Amino acid sequence: MSRLWLVGFCFFALAALACGQQAGTMQAETHPKLTWKQCSGAGSCTAQNGEIVLDSNWRWLRKDDGGYSNCYTGNTWDAEACPDDASCAKNCALEGADYSGTYGITSSGDSLTLKLVTGSNVGSRTYLMKDEETYQVFNLLNKEFTFDVDVSKLPCGTNGALYFVEMPADGDKGKGNNNAGAKYGTGYCDAQCPHDLKFIAGEANVEGWEPSEGDKNSGSGKYGSCCNEMDIWEANSMGAAYTPHTCKKEGLYRCTGTECGDGDERYSGVCDKDGCDYSHYRLGATDYFGPGKTVDTNSKMTVVTQFVGNPLTEIRRFYIQNGKQIDNSVVSVPGVSNYSSITGNFCEEYKQVFGDQNSFDADGGLSEMSASLGRGHVLVMSLWVDFAAHMLWLDSSYPTDGDPSKPGIKRGECATSSGVPADVISQNADAQVVFSNIRFGDIGSTTST
User: Which one is catalytic: 51, 229, 259, 368?
Assistant: First the structure.
């Protein structure tokens, strides 16, 4: 997911939950059902019976010895069960999830609701399944992806995200010691090469694990999990962006050292962490998206994204709200042409004016994004808070020591003091995002019904 200048990427659950590689037997895994539509031609859409699965990083991880002892508690591994990466994957089991009771994840028909706070749990990351054992894979080239979303209960500092990543359809089941697979939400990767994943490519991430100072239930290991990423939707009620991120590797790649692009080596890694972001507010359309604005975040909206060409040449966006189509915002930044979509020229031009390093083009640009989308992506839907940068890159001024009058610094109207996870959690326990009416098909086919 797009986090400009963000050092790392994490989704954090504040419950004592974790992830693993063996399939547990203590609690059954029952996926919530979610229907969506496959469309072709004008108005010809067929309902698909999908399922939702919770990412493995949120799950109870216990010793696979018939008892109830944890392999991971708080942000620390059990030394006996996890002396090394390979042994840990053999010794620990992922358990089934209580989706609504523990995680605040509910579905009804074609609607999925993700709650921010449920008991001691915060946030979640979910994937759309083709069947009980396999993620649904989409090829977006020359296609259109449409969904409805309600962000009215998402304040500053939250992110209700819908995006695609080039993760394996089987969750890397059978690789290393991964016997759980997609059924238990394994195999995640993205362009931030996250180190907080406790298992990557069938092995644990125990080596070099450092507990987080800010989050009592998270940490980071030696390895990161990298892959191409297409952020269709990163948003709360105050800001929104859509962003392609490219990588120099195909599929899930377990990185280490410089290739992860951590810290000062951000632009030396295998993935473009900045991406080519189309952020309405950052690009000068300050009255376009938000409460009472052109796209009014007080009400549900339809989000339409079109992937033009094979190979890909353009990524278009428009909205539908209250029965009316709202064309995408137009760039209004001195020195940048009046673009209204993502193209190669748009990325090159705005990054030069903003003074951003163009790692997107350096890592392959739309050409590499096209190749990745052609190989197929998995749909991710999530809700999270940001311990690293407080989501200021989405809805405020970032970096905070930058001049807000400088092009590209101001991304929304949230205060630079906003987004502190402890504050967001305590003050907005009722925050939630609702995704519904997902449609996918030929360009022009998903909005005619």
Answer: 229
